[in-house]
Amino acid sequence: MEVWVCREEELRDGVVHTTQLGHDDEGIPIVALLLRDESGAIVAYRNLCRHLPVPLDGGTGELLSPDGAYLICGTHGALYRLHDGYCVDGPCEGLALHRLPVREHDGDLYVSDAAEPL
């Protein structure tokens, strides 16, 4: 499934857009996170911690560390790099978030639920 998320110009530094992409085979919601990384590239990840199957924000909408340098898991504080989703601190250190494909068309950004290989 592919879903429209936002216009490219709406995706500024420090802003993370989310969108629902349905449910996986286990009934867990697939929520995409769409953001710009440190270089300005657009990336998308599944909003699901690699330590426990919980959303990074726990429903709060707070996804970035206070300095905006990492995605952070509100449940246990794991820190994930923006450019590759790799966990650099926390119980899931060494694992990476599931990356999702992003497609741009005429300034519109779309995300698909087909996870890219790690």
**Overall CATH architecture:** 3-layer Sandwich
The fourth-level CATH homologous superfamily is: Rieske [2Fe-2S] iron-sulphur domain
Average pLDDT across residues? 91
Rg from C-alpha positions? 13 Å
Shape label = globular
Question: Spans of 5+ residues with little confidence (pLDDT < 50)?
Answer: none
What's the number of domains? 1
Tell me the name of the CATH class.
Mainly Beta
Helix content: under 10%
The number of distinct β-strands equals 9
Question: What does the model show?
Answer:
- The structure is a single chain.
- Strand 3 (29-36) and strand 4 (42-46) form a beta hairpin.
- The protein has no helices and nine strands.
- It has a three-stranded antiparallel sheet, with no helix packed on it.
- It has 118 residues and is mainly β.
- The protein has strands at residues 2-7, 17-23, 29-36, 42-46, 70-72, 79-81, 87-89, 102-105, 108-112.
What's the layout of helices and strands?
Layout: E1 2-7, E2 17-23, E3 29-36, E4 42-46, E5 70-72, E6 79-81, E7 87-89, E8 102-105, E9 108-112
Antiparallel strand pairs: 1-9, 2-3, 3-4, 5-6, 6-7, 8-9
